[in-house]
């Protein structure tokens, strides 16, 4: 029987996550906790017997490093890896690099909440989640999904919002419900797909 396995992992905690800064396409490194989270992701997958045929990640180092550390724990450091900015985090535009509390002082709590939690309202100079879906989903459809349907075991290490773009389709979320879908850093979400690309089962190791 064909195994259609897709595992998504959000990168471990970054230095800017720790500092409460909007990150987007900026490229901070993982914190020591982020490194630990990435290693634990690999350890969890190894403990459950998972191995992979190919991996995908973004053009940003925090996702790439998370993937490398997880693969190291799996003993798969030579695995083929495809990197593409289509899987980058949502671009926060003028908010990038700002402390989230400082942004609320500058623009107001309500406006910052709209930028962060609405589906289709982008921050100044940046992307909405809708924009991120428009970027990430075609890449999933043309590059990632065909590998899964061929029976390749696929691991994707990326970002909260680029992964939400994929999860929106996989879990059939509405624009409203996808904004409430939380993704813990460094915790694998395991999908098995049917031949028609819909989800047969999902296990979120965050519980």
From TrEMBL:
The active site is at 11 (tele-phosphohistidine intermediate), 89 (proton donor/acceptor). SMART domains: PGAM. Pathway: Carbohydrate degradation; glycolysis; pyruvate from D-glyceraldehyde 3-phosphate: step 3/5. It catalyses: (2R)-2-phosphoglycerate = (2R)-3-phosphoglycerate. It is an enzyme of class 5 (isomerase). The keyword Isomerase applies. InterPro entries: His_Pase_superF_clade-1, His_PPase_superfam, PG/BPGM_mutase_AS, Phosphogly_mut1. The record marks 159 as: Transition state stabilizer. Substrate binds at residues 10-17, 23-24, 62, 89-92, 100, 116-117, 160-161. GO terms for biological process: gluconeogenesis; glycolytic process. Transmembrane segments: none annotated. It holds the Pfam family His_Phos_1. Its EC number is 5.4.2.11. GO terms for molecular function: phosphoglycerate mutase activity. Belongs to the phosphoglycerate mutase family. BPG-dependent PGAM subfamily. Catalyzes the interconversion of 2-phosphoglycerate and 3-phosphoglycerate. NCBIfam families: pgm_1, PRK01295.1. This is 2,3-bisphosphoglycerate-dependent phosphoglycerate mutase. The gene is gpmA.
């Amino acid at each position: 029987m064909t195994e259609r396995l897709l595992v998504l992992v959000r990168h471990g905690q970054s230095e800017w996550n720790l500092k409460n800064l909007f990150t987007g396409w900026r490229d901070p490194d993982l914190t020591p906790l982020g490194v630990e989270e990435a290693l634990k992701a690999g350890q969890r997958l190894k403990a459950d017997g998972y191995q992979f045929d190919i991996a995908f990640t973004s053009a940003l180092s925090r996702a790439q490093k998370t993937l490398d550390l997880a693969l190291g724990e799996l003993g798969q450091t030579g695995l083929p890896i495809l990197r593409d900015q289509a899987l980058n985090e949502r671009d926060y535009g003028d908010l990038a690099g700002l402390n989230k509390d400082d942004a609320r002082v500058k623009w107001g709590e309500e406006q910052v909440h709209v930028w962060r939690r609405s589906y289709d309202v982008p921050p100044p100079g940046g992307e909405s989640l809708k924009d991120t879906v428009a970027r990430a989903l075609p890449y999933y459809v043309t590059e990632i999904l065909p590998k899964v349907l061929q029976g390749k075991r696929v691991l994707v290490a990326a970002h909260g919002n680029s992964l939400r773009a994929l999860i929106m389709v996989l879990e059939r979320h509405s624009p409203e419900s996808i904004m409430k879908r939380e993704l813990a850093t460094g915790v694998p979400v395991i999908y098995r797909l049917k031949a028609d690309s819909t989800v047969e089962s999902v296990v979120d190791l965050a519980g």
